[in-house]
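Course assignment 3, question 2. Fill in each field.
Student: A.L.
Task: Predict the tertiary structure for the chain below.
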Amino acid sequence: MIRAMRFSSKTVGLVSAAITVLIWTGFIVVARASASRGLLPLDIALTRILGASSILLPWAWWLMRSARQAGQKVGSLGGLSPLPLVPTVQVGFLGGLLYAVLAYTGFFYAPATHASVLMPGSLPLWTTLLAWLVLRENVSSARALGLGFIVLGDVLVGGASLLMAFDGGEVWKGDLLFMAAACCWAGYSVMVRRGGLDAVRATMAITAFAFVGFVPVYLVLIGVGALPTHLLLVPWTEILFQALFQGVGSVVISGITFTQMVRHYGPVRSTMITALVPGLSALGAVWFLGEPMHWNLWAGLALVTSGILFGVRQAPKPVAQAAFPAGPVEAGGKP
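Answer field:
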């Protein structure tokens, strides 16, 4: 019966791709909607970390049980991370903590339509630049042209809000935070590729670091009144929803489905599939959040999406591509 219930590789790949795109798209729309539902940015980051930790930390402990029973010294952070301490801190700071704080804070300043272009859109740009600097990977002329499209798209979106800063607007702050978040995730992806880290273990490591390095400090600071929080002002159902969607969904589930998608379609075709995210999340912001789509957003979205597709189609061996919202997947098999 178990064998009869098994799905073909094609079905698993197709379903994994659909779930990945759906969660990545929903991440942007839900995160922006959450900015008006009561919780503060660090509150949302806390729920994300706790939600992911509830699954990944016990899983990491179970994963290392055989080695511990054999008397081997494995992992770090008291057995919560399956990686040694140095790589855990390195990837955990960028991919597990800083990315979440920057991204969620950005949604309190800029609309989801901007995030749709500037986060998933600029990720290939930052990843290519960092891979060139750190890994010394060559950038083909075709890839450079695709990145040029992305830069033009980002300028069309972020440049307009930056000009509004002179009139007292704050959208530009969110745009810069989105770009910084994408840069952090790109840095995390390049670190994973340079170290040859396993996808699942790297995801567990960034979650463990965020859990140990952020949760107790944040709880102490809000406990003594040093930081504001709205955790006690919102219904418990809101906190539970954020933990399930932001943590379990965006980190755990999308990390697994992205890995499965890469295994079936390969990194190039997978990146082409995820190029749907900017457009779908922008349309979701218009449909569900009532955000306007001005001409510069449409043009920027078209340029960024074209840049991603053009660059990937011309690249026989793309650089680490990570699941920007989830936190757990890098190109070729890591989160």
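Instructor remarks: Confidence is low (pLDDT under 50) at residues 316-335. The CA atoms of residues 109 and 301 lie 19 Å apart.
Grade: pending
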